[in-house]
Amino acid sequence: xxxxxxxxxxxxxxxxxxxxxxxxxxxxxxxxxxxxxxxxxxxxxxxxxxxxxxxxxxxxxxxxxxxxxxxxxxxxxxxxxxxxxxxxxxxxxxxxxxxxxxxxxxxxxxxxxxxxxxxxxxxxxxxxxxxxxxxxxxxxxxxxxxxxxxxxxxxxxxxxxxxxxxxxxxxxxxxxxxxxxxxxxxxxxxxxxxxxxxxxxxxxxxx
Length: 207
Description:
The protein contains ten helices and no strands. It is mostly helical. It has one domain: Heme Oxygenase, Chain A (Up-down Bundle). Helix 2 packs parallel to helix 10, helix 3 (22-29) crosses helix 7 (121-145) and helix 5 (65-91) packs antiparallel against helix 9. The longest helix has 28 residues, at 34-61.
């Protein structure tokens, strides 16, 4: 079994916990209060800036051209996702230039960037892959449950799309290529999954 599959299977418990959180259930059925979603969008936009930077740092450290090119292209996908957030932010009248990161956001960003600056490409990929794989999985799960269109249907469509699945799978292939199968890798992957859970919980409490 590829390392990416092994790590995902080992963390399905956290993925299922995320899916059943009130925040995700509220996105799934459209009942989530606007202030909670607005807080989430602002925090996620702040996080995505670090995510794009981590791609660039990992690319610069890549041991070969395949990794360099692929990670830069994935960084481009992250920049496109940031543009999507800007469109949502305008609709919610959120000034993304004035976002103050919450504790859960700051903890996640600090972990991601510390890993990118301090570790090799493979370990950075291990810290980044949970975000991509989890969102692709959540998008598909919520799409399967959706009964009718609602205010958050676009969120579900974006992350449940084939395009997003392909991006997640591409990052997983890079993980299988560059990341060592070590306890440190497993720890980084799981910590990122825990950060995702805490990120969603923080958005729920903020509202």
